[in-house]
Amino acid sequence: xxxxxxxxxxxxxxxxxxxxxxxxxxxxxxxxxxxxxxxxxxxxxxxxxxxxxxxxxxxxxxxxxxxxxxxxxxxxxxxxxxxxxxxxxxxxxxxxxxxxxxxxxxxxxxxxxxxxxxxxxxxxxxxxxxxxxxxxxxxxxxxxxxxxxxxxxxxxxxxxxxxxxxxxxxxxxxxxxxxxxxxxxxxxxxxxxxxxxxxxxxxxxxxxxxxxxxxxxxxxxxxxxxxxxxxxxxxxxxxxxxxxxxxxxxxxxxxxxxxxxxxxxxxxxxxxxxxxxxxxxxxxxxxxxxxxxxxxxxxxxxxxxxxxxxxxxxxxxxxxxxxxxxxxxxxxxxxxxxxxxxxxxxxxxxxxxxxxxxxxxxxxxxxxxxxxxxxxxxxxxxxxxxxx
Length: 388
Description:
Elements: H1 17-23, H2 33-53, H3 55-62, E1 81-82, E2 101-104, E3 114-117, H4 119-135, E4 145-152, H5 161-169, E5 175-184, E6 189-191, H6 193-204, E7 210-214, H7 216-228, E8 241-244, H8 258-269, E9 276-282, E10 285-290, E11 297-298, E12 304-308, E13 321-327, E14 338-348, E15 361-367, H9 376-381
Parallel strand pairs: 1-14, 4-5, 4-7, 7-8, 8-9
Antiparallel strand pairs: 2-3, 5-6, 9-10, 11-15, 12-13, 13-14, 14-15
Helix pairs in contact: 1-2, 2-3, 6-7
Pfam families: LuxE
InterPro entries: ANL_N_sf, LuxE
Protein name: Acyl-protein synthase
């Protein structure tokens, strides 16, 4: 068995048996009444788990139930916790000695989400990522690749969730060579655009697939610089893959539409559209949302999504824009099993996508309003200041 798909066990099999069975589902986009029943049972167990260990979450359960969102499940109790809460409070549902990993959501300044993971939680989330990659055929242990990572080069004190995720994704295909776009200087990180261009030239001449991972803004600025320098289009080897995440926060004025951006990548690097995928995720909610071949962010079997009115937090019907609400019982370390994100999104039924998947999917339309909070992408975008 691939080690990334190996079994992991919940902290208390008796109290969290339904959570275990839900997270053990191997097919990431399974649907059906039995799956819905299992999800509802797993959420009930997760609620009890956190209420017994977190006075904060227990008080939420004591409040009148929130209006249920049909897309989450009428029988699913999912108290609303804003993602911003974790930027101001440290709340744990496990002893601090059981914390296996501590990650933050932002750069070296500004408010940070402090997320703490026991071993079950982070391993379960990693296994979800592996199952989605396996679903799309992107786990290739016998095929070495070259990596260009548009994320932070590791440093001893670096605890950013994006850096952790991108380096984990490198485990799905053995690395012949790796280039980081955000180089560690000893006093921080700097965007090495010329190093990225040199790596792309070198990789294009080798007979190995290339995997480009990380923030889309940095890839766009690399391609933009190549064009300004008169560099002719490259053709990365067959099997190359672009998996992006983090959005364009901090550079919305220069953001390309998705179709235009993907066309730019295809034109200048030769990667076909179906091998270019965006993702959505956060340190507060580590369930992976990965675009299908039609570029829709489908909801996997281990979670549910809803959209809530920005004024009333009432659930909205398909197609309307509001706060993105993500629900999953996988997390046992922190009461973040029902998080309202700061992102504006719209939810759509599976049949509105032409791909074979039948789960709901959502589109992210940007951040709601203005905020002093700085995500990983915002912090990284500041490194682009001053570029032409």
